[in-house]
Specification:
By secondary structure, the chain is an alpha/beta fold. The protein has 14 helices and 14 strands. β2 and β3 form a beta hairpin. α4 packs parallel to α8 and α5 runs parallel beside α6. The chain is elongated, with a radius of gyration of 56 Å. The mean pLDDT is 88.
C-alpha cells in the first residue's frame, strides 16, 4: 500500500497556512503575565505570556514596541493585541503583538477600540467632512480647564504669534464626573460666539484622565459643530476619539495654538510681498496705459481731424448724388408706366373695347347654343339612356333592357325586344 509521507517543513507550512487564514486568529486580545522578557538591541521585544495553565511565545517588533509607554518586566500583568501565527523554524505557534499595555486599563482600551471602530464605520472620521482651518482667524475659542498649563500655553502662544486674534475661553471640566457633559455644553455654547476656529483639549495625563475625550457624546458634539475644531488632548503620543473626529488634530495644546493662528512675522512678510507685487503690477498697468495714451495722441486722425471731416463730407456728397440719380430714374420709370396706361384702348376708347367684348360674348354664346343637345333634339333627334347613361352604340343594349328615350318635348321608357 503506497503512502505519501510529508516532510516536517511541509506539515509546518500547512499548519501555518491554516492558522494564518483563520479569521478568528487575525486579531486576538490576550491578557496574562510577562516572563522571559528580552529587549533586543534592534528594538524588538521577545517574551512569553502566561497564566495559571498555559503560556504562549510573543514577539513585538520595533515598529510597534516604540509606542509602549512603560518598561515591560517579568511578572508584569499586561494586555496585548496581536495576530496568531506559526514560527516555521521551531514549528511553534506564537502571537505577534501590535499593542501592549499594563493591565488595569484594559477595559477602557477595549471600549476605546470598539467606539473607534463603530464611529469610523459611520463615517465620522471621513476626510470629506473635515472643515478647513482659516488662515487668519479673528476670534479663537478655547474649551479647556480655566486653570493649568494648557490654557496658559495656548494664550501665550497665540499672543506671541498673532496678538490681533481675540481669545474667548469656555471653561470646562476636562476629567472626572460630569466632564463629558460639560464639554458638550461648552461646544454648543461656543457656536453662538461667531468664532473662526475652536480649540478643544487639555494637557497630558493617564488614559483615565483623558477619558472624557473618548466619550461618544463628545465625539458627536465635535462632529456636529459648525465651527472648525482643532483637537489638542494630552501629549503627542496620546490619541483620543476626539482627535479622529475633529477637523484637525494637534499633538499638544501649544501645537493647537500654533496651528490656529499664523505667525505675525510670516503675515507681515506676506503683506510686504503683496505690497511689492501690487506696486509692481500697478507700475506695469500705468506704463501700458501711458503707451496706449501716447499711441492715441500720435494717431493720424487726432493730428489731422479735418481729413476725417473731409472724408465724411465727400461720402455725404456721393450718397446725395446717388440718391437724386436713383430718384430721377425711379420717377421716370413710373411716369412711363402711367403714360402707357393712359394710351391703352380701355382708357382712350372705352366704348369700342366694350363693343368688342360684347361681340365676342355673342359669338361664344351662339357657338355654345349650336353645340347644345337641346338644339339636336329640336332637329328630330333623341337621346337613349340606360341607367342614366347615354347610349352611343347598339352593342351597349341587350334584350329586356329598360331604357329611357328623351325627345325635345319629354321622355318615355321602353323595353328592348
Amino acid at each position: 500500500m503506497n503512502k505519501e509521507y510529508l516532510t516536517v517543513s511541509q506539515l509546518t507550512k500547512y499548519i501555518k497556512y491554516k492558522i494564518d487564514n483563520d479569521i478568528n486568529l487575525q486579531e486576538v486580545y490576550l491578557k496574562g503575565e510577562i516572563s522571559n522578557f528580552k529587549a533586543h538591541t534592534r528594538g524588538h521585544f521577545y517574551f512569553t505570556i502566561k497564566d495559571e495553565g498555559s503560556r504562549i511565545n510573543a514577539v513585538m517588533f520595533a515598529s510597534n514596541a516604540f509606542k509602549v509607554k512603560f518598561i515591560p518586566e517579568d511578572g508584569m500583568k499586561i494586555l496585548v493585541t496581536g495576530k496568531i501565527s506559526v514560527y516555521e523554524a521551531t514549528g511553534g505557534y506564537q502571537i505577534y503583538v501590535n499593542e501592549m499595555m499594563e493591565d488595569g486599563v484594559g477595559n477602557l482600551y477595549v471600549a476605546f477600540e470598539q467606539l473607534k471602530k463603530r464611529l469610523k464605520e459611520e463615517g465620522l472620521f471621513d476626510e470629506r467632512y473635515k472643515k478647513q482651518i482659516p488662515k487668519i482667524p479673528e476670534r479663537v475659542g478655547v474649551i479647556t480647564a480655566p486653570t493649568g498649563a494648557a490654557i496658559r500655553d495656548i494664550i501665550s502662544t497665540i499672543n506671541r504669534r498673532f496678538p490681533l486674534a481675540e481669545i474667548i475661553l469656555f471653561p470646562s471640566l476636562v476629567q472626572g464626573d460630569g466632564a463629558k457633559e460639560d464639554i458638550v455644553r461648552q461646544i454648543k455654547r461656543a457656536e453662538n460666539y461667531n468664532l473662526d476656529v475652536l480649540i478643544v483639549g487639555r494637557g497630558g495625563g493617564s488614559i483615565e484622565d483623558l477619558w472624557a475625550f473618548n466619550e461618544e457624546i463628545v465625539a458627536r458634539a465635535i462632529f456636529d459643530c459648525q465651527i472648525p475644531v482643532i483637537s489638542a488632548v494630552g501629549h503627542e503620543i496620546d490619541f483620543t476619539i476626539a482627535d479622529f473626529v475633529a477637523d484637525l488634530r494637534a499633538p499638544t495644546p501649544t501645537g493647537a495654538a500654533e496651528i490656529a493662528v499664523p505667525n505675525k512675522i510670516d503675515v507681515l512678510n506676506y503683506l510686504k510681498q503683496l505690497t511689492l507685487r501690487s506696486k509692481k503690477n500697478m507700475a506695469t498697468i500705468l506704463e501700458l496705459k501711458k503707451k496706449r495714451l501716447d499711441n492715441i495722441k500720435n494717431h493720424y486722425i487726432l493730428n489731422n481731424p479735418l481729413d476725417l471731416y473731409a472724408a465724411k463730407i465727400q461720402k455725404l456728397d456721393y450718397l446725395t448724388e446717388s440718391l437724386v440719380k436713383n430718384y430721377k430714374v425711379l420717377l421716370e420709370k413710373k411716369k412711363n408706366n402711367l403714360t402707357n396706361l393712359k394710351n391703352r384702348p380701355l382708357f382712350s376708347n372705352p366704348l369700342t373695347v366694350l363693343d368688342k367684348s360684347k361681340q365676342k360674348y355673342l359669338l361664344l354664346l351662339s357657338k355654345l347654343d349650336a353645340l347644345s343637345p337641346l338644339k339636336t333634339l329640336e332637329r328630330g333627334y333623341g337621346i337613349i339612356k340606360l341607367d342614366n347613361k347615354a347610349i352611343t352604340s347598339i352593342n351597349d343594349l341587350n334584350k329586356d333592357n329598360l331604357i329611357e328615350i328623351e325627345l325635345k318635348d319629354g321622355s318615355k321608357k321602353a323595353i328592348i325586344k
